[in-house]
UniProtKB/TrEMBL annotation:
Gene3D superfamilies: 1.10.357.50, Exocyst complex component Sec6, C-terminal domain. Component of the exocyst complex involved in the docking of exocytic vesicles with fusion sites on the plasma membrane. The keyword Isomerase does not apply. GO terms for cellular component: exocyst; Golgi apparatus; growth cone; membrane; midbody; perinuclear region of cytoplasm. It comes from Promerops cafer (Cape sugarbird). One of its GO terms (biological process) is exocyst localization. This is Exocyst complex component 3.
Length: 747
């Protein structure tokens, strides 16, 4: 069994210990000593064991006694519960009867509140009167304090009534009616507040404390609103008229005030004042800037920071302006009004004169402001501006030309510029108009300026074509009656000079208003205009020369006639007439005048040679030939002298033209007919455009060459070489020789 096992283990352990103690023989002497030690140990262990068993037994005894007591207690409780149960069953009826007590308690608390409020209730009419007086006197803070007390009394009464009997609307209405005047007070006070808010930008300068009081009242009301809404969440009750939302109302009133302020700045209409829009916009600019500066420096300090009053106002002004600008943009604006509006919206609004004012920064950042009118509307206005401007420019140009044409028929000479060149005011008027429109467009933006410049030059192009046609008509009308207009020559000179002015003005306009990278887009139309102007000038010059030669005609008809040979003064008259005309032509500007002089010189020589080729005279003998030839050489010299004088300073070499007359004179003067062929061939080699009929005519004028001789000379010439002067401009090819017609023969 377990006991035996334990004994065995104990013996084995003992044997081991003893074996351990008696390892060596000398330890045997100490056996007694060992035994005593072990006996002591054993005694000690036994004593400890006894003590432990003893204390265990004590514990068990105590536990048993406690269990016994507990059992008795449980029995007592069980008995008590039975008794309680019995009592409770008996007293259920008694509890039912206590409901009256509970009702009495509720009523008591209400009555206590009512008694508390009675003094307030009875004094309601009195307080209403006092509050009304305070409002009248403008003591708004005290008035509001009393109003809050009144509202507090009413609200508490109503709340008690609601708690007691939420369905009893009759009693609720009773309270509501009793406090009815109080509602009027609240409205009256609000009216005062809104008046102050409407005038806040004025009030803040005169009486900032009044504004601060108003803000404090609004803040108090906001706080009560919040409290009432919280209570509604918990109890479901909210007094009539809550939430008042006075802060929201205040911002609405500010917004309306701002709108009215901006709309109210339009004092005039187009009918009463051409400049109505400019004035309207300027007043808006001034008002808005002043208001915002006041708002930033003064108003901001009267409101709590969370109102963010300056930014809210800034936003309101921006919105009101956007609305106003859109209204204006929708009106039927004239071109200059569109410019005023766009300049204001796109430039003035963000400039230092308004939102970009240094005193408004950093709160106002012009870069983050939205556009006042959409890009779409801007584009519509710009295209309307461009189409209006187009028709305006067409009209202005037409009118300018009509006015100029009226000058052409005046009986007084045109004005001259500072250098003495004739001109009319047309180029100045046209380019002044272009300049004005370009400066206006530049106020809006670069892009518009370029568009307007292109428009001006396009219109200029078609205008010049009309100008050319009008100059042509002017000339034709004059030819019908050369006495009229009286100053035809002078005005034609002015037209020619205008061409040069137009050319210069176009260049300077482009230089001033066109970016160099745009140059190419206009080069074609520029070339067209230059070409048109050259044509006008050229036709003008040639019509002036026509005038000269019409006057010279009777004198040219006298050349190479019997009368001429007898000693007429035709060439003298021709020279005087040409010089006289050229006194006027001195008023033509340089490039054109130079061409005129050359052309006149050339035409005089051509007409002279044509007179020879007309065979009006046939010299009878060597004497006549000599006389005729010398006269021709003398007259060539007269022409040479005249044109040298006219071309003075222009460095033009036209010597060669008169040489032709002299070369022909040499052929006529020749006395030895056998040398005739040589002389003629020299002439032909110098002037290779001489035709056979010219030579035939020349020999006819000489008067001594037989038909066979003419034939031989002409046939032989065809083989000869030619060595003309490289600068020679063919002159004979324009000269026709008349063939003998039957009537001539009959004569």
């Amino acid at each position: 069994s377990t006991m035996e096992e334990t004994d065995r283990e104990a013996v084995a352990t003992a044997v081991q210990r003893v074996a351990g103690m008696l390892q060596r023989p000398d330890q045997l002497d100490k056996v007694e000593q060992y035994r005593r030690r072990e006996a002591r140990k054993k005694a000690s262990v036994e004593a400890r064991l006894k003590a432990a068993i003893q204390s265990q037994l004590d514990g068990v005894r105590t536990g048993l006694s406690q269990l016994h007591n507990a059992l008795n207690d449980v029995k007592d409780i069980q008995q008590s519960l039975i008794d309680v149960n019995k009592d409770w069953r008996q007293s259920i009826n008694t509890i039912e009867n206590l409901k009256d007590v509970k009702d009495a308690v509720v009523q008591h608390s209400q009555l206590a509140a009512a008694v508390e409020n009675l003094k307030n209730i009875f004094s309601v009419p009195e307080i209403v009167r006092e509050t009304h007086d305070l409002i009248e006197r403008g003591e708004l803070l005290q008035a509001h304090r009393k109003l809050m007390d009144l509202e507090c009394s009413r609200d508490n009464l109503m709340y008690e009534q609601y708690r007691m009997d939420s369905k009893n609307t009759h009693d609720m209405n009773l309270i509501h009616t009793y406090f009815g005047d109080m509602q009027k007070l609240s409205e009256e006070l609000a009216k005062q507040l809104w008046m102050v808010v409407q005038r806040s930008l004025v009030t803040v300068r005169r009486d900032p404390t009044l504004l601060v009081s108003v803000v404090r009242i609004i803040e108090r009301e906001e706080k009560i609103d919040r409290r009432m809404l919280d209570r509604k969440k918990q109890t479901g009750f909210i007094p009539p008229g809550r939430p008042k939302k006075w802060k929201e109302k205040m911002f609405n009133i500010l917004e309306r005030t701002v709108s009215t302020r901006i709309e109210g700045t339009q004092a005039d209409t187009r009918e009463s004042d051409k400049m109505w829009l400019v004035r309207h916009l300027e007043i808006i600019r001034k008002y808005v800037l002043d208001d915002l500066l006041v708002a930033k420096t003064l108003l901001d300090q009267c409101f709590p920071p969370h109102y963010d009053i300056f930014n809210r106002l800034l936003n309101m002004y921006h919105q009101a302006l956007a609305t106003r600008m859109q209204e204006l943009a929708a009106e039927d604006l004239e071109a200059n009004e569109i410019v005023s509006l766009l300049t204001w919206v796109l430039n003035t609004y963000t400039s230092a004169e308004m939102m970009g004012n240094s005193e408004l920064s950093p709160e106002v950042d012009v870069n983050s402001l939205d556009a006042l009118i959409s890009q779409n509307v801007v584009d519509q206005l710009l295209s309307k501006y461009m189409s209006t401007l187009t028709s305006n420019i067409i009209g202005w140009l037409r009118k300018a030309l009509e006015t100029d044409k009226k000058d052409w028929i005046k009986e007084t000479e045109p004005e001259a510029d500072q250098d003495g060149y004739y001109q009319t005011t047309l180029p100045a008027i046209v380019f002044q108009m272009f300049e004005q429109n370009l400066q206006v467009a530049a106020q809006i933006n670069e892009d518009l300026k370029t568009k307007v410049l292109i428009l001006c030059l396009q219109q200029m192009n078609s205008f010049l074509t009309r100008y050319k046609d009008e100059a042509q008509l002017y000339k034709e009308d004059h030819l019908k009656n050369r006495q009229y207009p009286q100053c035809y020559v002078q005005y034609m000179i002015a037209v020619i000079n205008n061409c040069q002015t137009f050319k210069e003005s176009i260049i300077s306009l482009k230089r001033k208003y066109l970016k160099s990278d745009m140059e190419d887009t206009l080069s074609i139309s520029h070339a067209n205009m230059d070409a048109t102007l050259d044509i006008i000038a050229k036709e003008g010059c040639s019509s002036l020369l026509d005038e000269v030669f019409m006057d010279l005609e009777p004198h040219l008809n006298e050349l190479m006639t019997k009368k001429w040979l007898m000693g007429s003064n035709a060439v003298g008259t021709i020279c005087v007439t040409v010089e006289d005309y050229f006194n006027d032509f001195a008023k033509i500007k340089k490039p054109y005048k130079k061409t005129m002089t050359l052309e006149a010189h050339r035409r005089v020589v051509v007409e002279y040679i044509r007179a020879i080729m007309l065979k009006r005279i046939s010299f009878k003998n060597a004497e006549e030939r000599k006389e005729g030839a010398e006269r021709m050489i003398k007259e060539a010299e007269q022409f040479r002298f005249l044109f040298k004088k006219l071309a003075a300073g222009s460095g033009e070499d036209t010597e060669g033209l008169c040489d032709i007359i002299e070369a022909i004179a040499e052929v006529i003067k020749l006395t030895d007919p056998s040398l005739l062929y040589l002389e003629v061939s020299t002439l032909v080699s110098k002037y290779p455009d001489i035709r056979d009929d010219h030579i035939a005519a020349l020999l006819t004028v000489r008067g001594d060459a037989s038909r066979d001789m003419k034939q031989t000379i002409i046939e032989t010439l065809d083989q000869g070489p030619s060595q003309p002067n490289p600068n020679y401009v063919p002159i004979f090819k324009e000269i026709t020789v008349p063939t003998l017609t039957v009537p001539k023969l009959l004569k």
